[in-house]
Each structure stands twice: as C-alpha cells, then as structure tokens.
# Entry
Amino acid sequence: MTTHVYWAPGRVNLIGEFTDLSGGPVLPVALDLGVRIEAAPADTIDLCSHELGGRARLAPDGTSLGHALEGWARYVEAVVTELALIGRPAVGLEGEITSTLPIGVGLSSSAALEVAVGLALCDVADFPLEPMQLAQVARQAEHRAVGVPCGILDQAASLLGRVGHATLLETASLAYEYVPLPEKIALVIIDSGISRRLESSGYGTRRDELARALGALDGLDPTGMTLSEIDKIAQANAIDPIARRRLHHVISDSERVYEVARLLRNPSAANLERLGEVFREGHESIRRDWEATTPETDLLVELAYENGAVAARQTGGGFGGAVVTLAWEKDAETYKNTLVDAYGGRADAVARAYICHASAGAGQL
Ligand code: GLA
# Structure
C-alpha cells in the first residue's frame, strides 16, 4: 500500500478574539508547528501515536470496534463520523500521527488534528472537499468530540494559511484575503504555563452571554455600529451589563482586526507603534470586557512590552494559554530568553516560548 503524508498546522490568532462567535472578522496565522499523519488505505481505521500516546481504532464509517476511545482518539472518531454524515465512502486508514504542537496552549492542536485526519480520510476515499467545507466538518467534529461550541477560526486558519501572511477571514461570509506580515518582524509566542481546556473553561458561558446580547438586539446586525450606538440600543432593550460588555468586546475587536490589517499592509515606524497600541487595547478588552485573561497572561503582556515587543496580547480561547507577540527578528532570540526569565522570577509558572513563522495551510505533502 502506498503511504501518504498529510500535514495540518496550528494557528495563532493575531487579533479578532471570540469575534467568530458572532460572525465577525479574525486575523490568524498558520504556524510551522502542526500535526503530521503518515498513512495508507486499510480495511479499518487504525491510527496510533507514540508521541501523543494511544490509538484510535474504529470502523471506516465511524462505528465502534468495541474499544472505548479516549483523549485525542475522540477527535479522530468525531471527524470520521462527521464525514460519514456527508457521504464519505467508508474506506479505512492505517498509520501514525506525530505533532510538534504544544497541547492546551491555545495554538489549536485539536483543530490541526481534526484537519489532518479529515484530509487523510478524504484522500483515501477519493472524496475531495473544498477547504472551507473541510473546515466546517472539522469544526463540527470539535463540537461532537468535546462539546465545545467553538467558531470556525481554528479549523479555517489551519486550512487557509499562506507563507509570510496572515489570513483576514470574515467568519460570516467565509470570504478571506491575505495580509503580508512585515519583514524583519518575528512571531514570538509565549505559553504562560497555565494550561486550559476549552471544554472546562468559561468559553461556553461567554458565548451564551454574547448570544443574550445579540438576541436582545432584535435581529439588528451590530457589525459596523459604534459602541455608543450599541449602548443606546442596549439601554432601550435592557441588555444586562455583563452581556453588554461581551458585545463591546466583539464589536471593538472586530474594528481592531481591520485596523491591524491596514497597519500591516503599510508597516512604517508610526504604524508599527500604533500596532502595539491596538494589540494592547485588544488585550485590555479581553481582560475587562470579555473577562478571559489570567494574571499570568496579563503579566506576560506587560513584560513583553517592557522587553521591547512591537506588539503583544493574549491569543486563543482564553483563561490561560499563550500570548502572541511581534518582536524584531534580529533580537528575537535574546528577547525570548529575557522574557521567559523575567516571567520565571515573577510568576508561579514556567513559560515556554516559540519563535514561529507564518506557513502554508494544511495539505498533502
Ligand atoms: C477558540 C475557538 C475559536 C475562537 C477562539 C477565540 O480557539 O475554537 O473558534 O472563538 O477560541 O478567538
């Protein structure tokens, strides 16, 4: 049997956090860290991973072979089931999964796994899907596997990535375009060492609170409204203060996505300075209005700016995880080490930093 290699990257979101929960824009980058599957067609589905530990064995249509699936294998099972629901022929797959993505850090290790598994399953069954179709399947699989009501950000970012670029994605229409990342600027991601699992974090509660605010808008689309317009409507419709703050966050962060895209397209010194301010405002908005930062990510953002970051903010699903920072490439290594040491001296957790590059989206290698 011929073996094929499938690859799906993790992602870091530059800005536009939780905006995909109300159809707003996001600005992710696909990373050079990801999930790799080396596999060949087979009678059953049998994927193992020495690295992640464990094995996913099931029938090609997703039915159980009598083994209870645990951990990452639940994502595999969910992707198989979702693909079966849309008519993928029941062809099996046998192989090995490896990953360079840290888990629980907010860099979408589960989305990368779902996408890589989806690519492999579609390929062996000769069942081609458009990237955004596969992203939808992978997102559904996340819901199915762990019950997390996530948006499309992570799965789309993994599929759409482009070398040297961020992807500006409208999560309502699914239209997207690429925004170049400035030369001489490195992407330095710092994991706070406070790991979080989306399914047990406040992610779902925040989503419900936002839905409450959107529901009270009576079908009005808040996109493009100013915050004072929102406040007027909120008052008229008696939207409670918590729901209003959640809405403030997604409206203001959507505006920040467009501003960051504009600044990145023209990275003059003044624009990079503004970029730093917008990232700071974005972090502050997650802290104050969305209430999903932690003392550790707040500290990391402060330390990043003190140590020369161009821009820094918490990224991903919140309640821990990582901050994304932009730093001068020539100083990146020193900056990274200084930051990790400074954090070690102030926090009860150990940070790990990754210098990453914007990479191509998922595909067969
Ligand atoms: C998680 C979810 C995404 C998105 C981000 C926050 O990564 O899976 O859909 O909501 O959080 O921007």
Notes: The chain has a mean pLDDT of 94.
